[in-house]
Amino acid sequence: MSTTMPTDSAALKSQSDELALLGLMQLVSPALPIGAFAFSQGLESAFELDWVRDEASLGEWLSGVLEDGLTRCELPVLARLHQAFDQANGESIAVWDEWLAATRETAELAAEDSRLGASLKRLLGSLDLLPSEEPLPSEDLLSPLLPNQAGYVTLFAYTAHARGVSVRQTLLGFAWAWLENQLAVACKALPLGHTAAQRVIEQLRPVLVNAVNQALTLEDDELGPVLPGLALASALHETQYSRLFRS
User: Fold this and answer.
1) Rounded distance, CA 181 to CA 174, Å?
2) H helices within 29-73, ranges in order?
3) What gap in Å lies between CA 142 and CA 79, rounded to an integer?
4) How confident is the model at residue 109, as a pLDDT?
5) What are the residue ranges spanned by the domains of the chain?
């Protein structure tokens, strides 16, 4: 029985895909030292207000944020930023980075986006994944297109694109990292066990996939988060008497 050996090009393609996958896994890992664990995105305040009190209400809250927030804001803009880096379109990158900043309805949400973006940029520099200020011809020419104070979503798009991650996988990874971080918040601030957190993940996995599917179909004039409850919770978090997470 003969065995068909992979061609060199097929082997190289497979290796490239695997490296891209590992790069995405590194980017979405909770161990990535950018400080995402320090922010709750209003969830800690929702616990205090008794809007979220158990596994069921947590699943409802996160599903709502996915469907009315990430689906209409971060995910479609992330796709546009990925495409803009692919086309080396600095104007589009700047426009969408500014658009995202304008959607942050509280100082807490704005600070999270800017601080995580700055932390990720510093990390990339420490890992030699950003070229010097005067890059050699062989170095990446996309980083000069990054805004000086680019937000987290923009840096995420840059990093995923630089590692060869597809648009769809980039969106799935971003949404997954968000979900894991929110569940980590819940496990710290609620009497929620890790097994219960895994049940919430099982419940929301199809919601997450649907969010990515929908985000990839939206036109520019359909974008914009509709999360008044989250905005209110984030605003009230600033004056909450006792906090585990940054405001």
Assistant:
1) 11
2) 43-48, 55-65
3) 16
4) 87
5) 42-237
Residues 6+ apart with CB under 8 A from 156: 27, 78, 120, 170, 174
Query: Are the C-beta atoms of 159 and 129 separated by less than 8 Å?
Result: yes
Q: Are 181 and 36 in contact (CB under 8 A)?
A: yes
Q: Which of 219, 106, 212, 121 is closest to 166 using CA atoms? A: 212
Average model confidence (pLDDT) for the chain? 85
- Which candidate, 70, 68, 80, places its Cα nearest to that of 177? 70
- Tell me how far CA of residue 76 lies from CA of 26, 87, 184, in angstroms: 22, 17, 25
Return the DSSP state at 7: P
CA–CA distance, 211 with 172 (Å, rounded to integer): 9
Mean pLDDT of 62-71: 95
Output the CATH code of domain 42-237: 1.10.4190.10
Residues 6+ apart with CB under 8 A from 226: 68, 69, 72
Q: What is the mean pLDDT of residues 15-26?
A: 88
**pLDDT for 207:** 96
SS3 of 62, please?
helix
Q: What is the pTM of this model?
A: 0.88
How many Å apart are CA 145 and CA 15, to the nearest integer?
Answer: 28
Q: Mapping DSSP to helix (H, G, I), strand (E, B) and coil, where does residue 215 land?
A: helix
230-245: average pLDDT:
70
Quick one: which of 124, 122, 144, 127 has its CA closest to 135? 144
Higher pLDDT: 41 or 104? It is 104
Cα(181)–Cα(38) distance, integer angstroms: 9
Distance (Å, rounded) from C-alpha 142 to C-alpha 145?
A: 5
Q: For the residues 143-162, what does the mean pLDDT come to?
A: 89
Distance CA 145, CA 90 (A): 5
